[in-house]
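agent: user wants the structure for Heme chaperone HemW from Bradyrhizobium denitrificans. delegating to structure tool.
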Amino acid sequence: MTSAENEAFGVYVHWPFCLSKCPYCDFNSHVRHTAIDQDRFARAFAREIETTAARIGARTVSSIFLGGGTPSLMQPQTVGAILDAIGKHWHVASDVEVSLEANPTSVEATRFAGYRTAGVNRVSLGVQAMDDASLKMLGRLHTAEEAMKAVAIARQAFTRYSFDLIYARPDQTPAMWTEELTRAIGEAAEHLSLYQLTIEEGTPFFGLHAAGKLKTPDEGLARTLYDVTQEVCARHGLPAYEISNHARPGAECRHNLVYWRGQEYAGIGPGAHGRLDIDGIRHAIATDKRPEAWLMRVESNGHGVMTDDELNREERADEFLLMGLRLAEGIDPKRYAAISGRPLDPRRIALLREEGAIIVDGDGRLRVTQDGFPVLDAVVADLAA
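agent: tool returned. relaying tokens verbatim.
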């Protein structure tokens, strides 16, 4: 890893509002039936950025990610105000990556040129499926045709764009997924995020699944669909660089690499998380999830922080393993030893190599194999023990 990668610093900004709540989603997103006071929220984002910068001092921002919720519900001037605040309080790298998550609806696509003018240079579209029946099942408000039109508008406005698809949907076969994924790759210039449908507690899908009204693929079929994903993407030049993310070499999402490589990032906005080094100690920070409560906290205190935990060496090392082994590039065991104060157990490494779950490169990097990725949690638990 280069020194520039070691010094990467990201800023995550959370816009918590959506037009409707998708039935599979357990993210911090909220529906409001009255207009959002965007000017007031923009001032609060700027205030929290100012307070965070004063606390941690100088940093060079290498990536900014506007996530949600649905950030494409923001007016371009709101996005511009947030980016201006980041530039006011930190140095921003000349080649900074500025990503914005967007719904692929025609209304939101009309704002793309405005986002580009505001400073966004990469957009990530929540397409999720390429047929109307699946989109309806997933609770999405756009049609497949509308989504592809939005992708075409993104292609004109941005040199870099990505979109998401959800697979392992009810009644989806490997042949159906192969055809859909091949079409998607034809539309995606450089990057795709491909997530298996998971049933999360507290979501409408959880209740339907428990009642037997929503049937998802069994473990064997889900594994076949995962293997199809890897094979089709690799064949078309978009290999997996992370367990759910595929890109042409050099087109990886640099902001997400900050997370997975265990680097520093500030979390701004309602329910945002951050990992910041303060006086040589790694802090895990999270803000108030409730948008209006966060807003009032920021207006009163300058920030919306609810939890600020100092991570000990063991907690940092566990997080480094958990995040780093999601990457195709794997981890450097020497960095693990430097963080934790102890090396990984060579006997556990040997056993996992024998089982075909990991490999150790010539330069000593430890990587999870394709057979190991579906049981990644077990591999991480084994190594961390």
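agent: one observation worth passing along. Residues 1-5 have pLDDT under 50 and may be disordered.
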